Structure formats: C-alpha cells, structure tokens
Amino acid sequence: MKSDLRERKWRKFLHRVRLFRFVPFIDFVLAAGSLATGNLHENSDFDVIVGVSQGRIFTARFFSVLIFSIPGWRRSKLTHGEAAADKICLSHFVTPRSYKLRPPYNEYWQSLYKSLVPILGEREKISGFFASNDWLDPKRAYDVKNFKSNPFHLNIEGSRFKSLMEGVLHGQAGDYLERWFKSLQIKRIERNLAKNLGYKPRIVYNDDELEFHPDTKRIDEIVKSIRKKQKGS
Fold first, then answer.
1. Which residues of the chain are modeled with pLDDT < 50?
2. In 3-22, which positions are buried (b, 16+ CB within 10 angstroms) versus exposed (e)?
3. CA-based angle 230:138:108, to the nearest 5?
4. The pTM is what?
C-alpha cells in the first residue's frame, strides 16, 4: 500500500514539476521533504529546493508563483490537510551564495539533505550545491557524468519562453524589475509573517536566499525521535 502511494505521488509530482521549464533564471530543482525521505501520507505536499541565478531570486520566485498558481498546483501557506495535498511548496530558493544550508546541522537536516533528489536543471550547478554542503556526514557527491543513474532526473531542456525571458531580463531592465519584484514580495511576506509565525521559525528573505519555514516544531519532534531511537539501539 505504501509503495503504491509513493509511486502515485512521484508520478504526479514529476508531471507537475515540469512547469519549472517555463520559469526564467531557474538553474535546478531538487525534491525535498517527505517526497525525498519517503515519509509520505495521502495529504503530503511536494517540497522543493530551487536553485536560481544570482541577482534574480525575486524574479524567479515571482514567475514560479505565477506559473504554478494558474493550474492551482501551488501550495498556499494557509492551506493544510487535503487542500495542501500534491501542491508544490515553494518554500526554499537558493543562489550560489546560499547553496550551503545555515546551521544547526541536526539529524533532521542530515537526513533530508542526504535524501534530496535532483529532478531537473544544470548538472554542474547541482554538483556545486552538494559540494557546498560539506557539513554532511558522510559528504554527498553528485556525479555529473552518471546522472542517468537517477531515475527521477527529467532530462529536459528549458522552454523557449524561459530562454526568451532570460534574454530580455538579463541587463538593466532585469535589474529594475528584480528590485520591483523584491519590493512587492517583501511587503507581502512581512504582512503575512506577522500573522503566521510559529515555533522557532526559519525565515530568510534577501537577495541570496528565500526560506519560509514559519514553524519548525515538527522538525524538533523528528530530531527528538531520532535521538531517542539512537539511545535505544
């Protein structure tokens, strides 16, 4: 039964995640959360870590939100349970300057980052991401030559729309639009955070990284459970 759920979830995720082909300045996408670790249930959403070009993080997030909202595949922070099931959770965007996860490097993050699954994007950037996270024990490498050994990697190119938008927004016009998107999004982020902050939030929003985990109580519970099992073994 559990294997059937996993297969069904992965099939739906791989179908939906293809929309990132249309998002400008996306370098790679990694499957994270319960999808990567295998701790799935019927209402699980689809967590991703999205690698983006330096200097275009707010532009990439704007188009991600827009494109995944059109078919109703984006998870809203206010949705839970069935309403959140199978939705793409855009909770973590990183640039080359923020590839390395911020501490603490506890058991939860060790388990998660060892389980991350590269889905699409530039293989050299994916390799650089794992190389930057040298706190992993043991360290994890991503072999760009043997990427085909990962059955979940979608060997697809970015769309013409993505290439066109990156060309148009590469210079000063893109710089201006990035600043505008940043201003709009930060106002919205801060307005929403005032209502939704919970236990030990991990919140970052700057030019290098966007991370939105407003409540990490579940993470602490997982860490305690892991440590309890380790003591008992």
1. none
2. eeeeeebbeebbebbebbbb
3. 50
4. 0.92
